[in-house]
Amino acid sequence: RKKPQYPPGPKPHPLLGHLLQIPSIQSWKYFDRLSKQYGPVLRLHLAGSNMIVLNRPEDAEELLGRRSYNYSSRPPLIYAGKYQSNNKRMVLLPYGETLRQQRVAFHQMLQPRVVGAYESMQEMESVKLLFDILQSPRNNIRHCQRFSASLVFYLSYGKRLDDDGDELAAISDVLQNFVQDTTPGAHLVDTLTFLDYLPDFLAPWRRKAMERHQMELKLYTRLVTEVKEKVEKIDSGFECFAARLWDQRDTLNFDTEDIAYVAGTAFEAGTDTTASTIVWFLMAMLLFPDTMRKAQAEIDAVVGSDGKLMPGFLQIKDLPYCVALTKEVFRWAPAAPGGFPHYTELDDEYKGFKIPAKSMVIPCIWSMHHNEVEFQDPYTFDPERFMGKSDEQFDSFAAGHYGFGFGRRQCPGRHLAGKTIWIGVTRLLWAFTIEPALDHQGNPVKVDPNNCTSGMTSRPNDFPVKIRPRSLVHAETIRKEWARQ
Ligand code: HEM
Fold first, then answer.
1. What does the entry list as the binding residues for heme (predicted)?
2. Whose CA is nearest to atom 36 of ligand 1?
3. What pTM, to 2 d.p., does this model score?
């Protein structure tokens, strides 16, 4: 029997491996190009650590799914995991008891049966989104961010984000630091791990990371302590994620810091991803206006075209094209295109390749979603590809694509996120015509989906778009609905 070899990949630098070859901008497109040259399972190495990139879903499902006992950890991040998060942040946790407990807590809060209870809150926040866009259509990206942040904030802490934006600003700061600090290559110590042995006076980054930890812990602790005070009022019946965590702190074996981070993690993981997906939707409407018209025709046929009645979750089964369109946004422009890295605990062998213990394993979602064999004409935004699959179509917004990841680390917020995007997108389509902005000569300004941010998540950089109400009655209905909330 032939000795297993490493999966193929480009020629590395003798010392640094592929460290300098992997672009920090849109690395997922680089992986996609490599997969066409070397095959779907690739190996790169970064100054001594292995990186295995999976570009086909069948390989990710086998390794991260069926062999999940070995592929469910996360690469240790010294800066963001050990010092900045004090090993409490779920997204970065290695596989083990702490992760298991945190996932149990998330599951109780976000399983499909429970998620149904959040529909009225999702509908209310979506009215606010329409109202905000109606008032100031130019700030559409900020409104999408507020919509997703406010929903997850309410879910976690049982109160709406204040309107002056202070709370959102504080928490967005934490989020931004976290996204930056987990971007591959952000901190040298995560590649050259021996730097962690340096004493404090030679490692100023350590103090910075610990300061960030103190800052975010203070914010997250304040938020969950407020919840605790409400819960402790007799018969308060106060309900939210943090309230349940306080109730179950003994069973889950959580201390205050655990509760603070678990609730904070929901906010961090759920905000940027959801907002980015809605912004991608706006861009898709500019590039593929026929799909917008088709969805609007479907909505009008169900609630009438006079603009007096807004569609809601009651009509979801009558709006299959809007469901398909939501799934197509997840496919066409996944919010986490490079996937979140998994990490192996043991040596393994797959398709004749050796995959050593302590390898970072990246499911490249972007590559999977742009594979012509599974998704014909993959760069075209076409909701029809998700139509006509009978009831299966409504079973889960996570079915039929890979935008929520794999195996035991698959996104626990996917059921909530699917419904949030559906209500947001369907109501935006009901309310507005989304068109290219015009330049000084009156020509439509072109937008480019390649002009997007890079990091764990990705969204289009600001782009001009004209969003106007479909009629005066639509606008009036939005105002009335918002006044009623
Ligand atoms: C459009 C919205 C969303 C997208 C595209 C998305 C996508 C993802 C992906 C790709 C992962 C990594 C899975 C893997 O490692 O294989 C993930 C993890 C995670 N997501 Fe989401 N997500 C979304 C919304 C949410 C929401 C709303 C929440 C919570 C309220 C949430 C909570 C989490 C958490 C806690 C993790 C870490 C799981 C772990 O490490 O075990 N996500 N998400």
1. 411
2. 411
3. 0.94
| Residue 42 · residue 76 · CB < 8 Å | no
- Residue 460 resides in a domain: yes
Q: pLDDT (tens digit, 9 = 90+) per residue, 433-457?
A: 999 999 999 999 999 999 999 888 8
Helical ranges in 233-288 per DSSP H = 241-247, 249-252, 256-287
CATH number of 329's domain:
1.10.630.10
Task: Say what the pLDDT of residue 164 is.
Answer: 66
End-to-end CA distance of the chain: 69
pLDDT tens digits along 202-245: 999 999 999 999 999 999 999 999 999 988 886 667 788 999 89
The CB of 274 under 6 Å from ligand 1? The reply is yes
- Asked if the structure places residue 15 within a domain, the reply is no
Max mean pLDDT range (181-185, 230-234, 241-245, 474-478)? 474-478
How many degrees, rounded to 5, is the angle at CA 338 between CA 39 and CA 153?
Answer: 155
* Number of alpha carbons in the 13 Å side-chain half-sphere of residue 411: 23
Residues in CB range of 129: below 8 A, 6 or more apart:
143, 144, 146, 147, 424, 427, 428
| Ligand 1 atom closest to Cα of residue 148 | 27
In a domain, 409, yes or no: yes
Give the DSSP letter string of 117-148: GGHHHHHHHHHHHHHHHHH-GGGHHHHHHHHH
Q: Residue 31 domain-assigned?
A: yes
- Between the CA of 274 and the centroid of ligand 1 the distance, in Å, is 10
Mutating to test ligand 1, I would choose from 273, 421, 423, 459 the residue with most ligand atoms within 8 A of its C-beta, which is 273
Q: From the CA of 5, how far away is ligand 1's center (Å)?
A: 33
Tokens of 321: 């094209």
Choose one of 61, 100, 404, 419 to mutate for the ligand 1 pocket test, by most ligand atoms within 8 angstroms of C-beta.
404
* C-beta neighbour count of 315 within 10 angstroms: 15
Ligand 1 atom with the shortest distance to the CA of 339: 10
Domain that holds residue 467: 27-484
Distance 340 CA to ligand 1 centre (A): 9
Sheet strands (E) in 301-429: 342-343, 348-350, 353-355, 360-363
Domain count for the chain, please give it: 1
CA distance 206 to 82: 10
- How large is the greatest C-alpha to C-alpha distance in the chain, in angstroms? 74
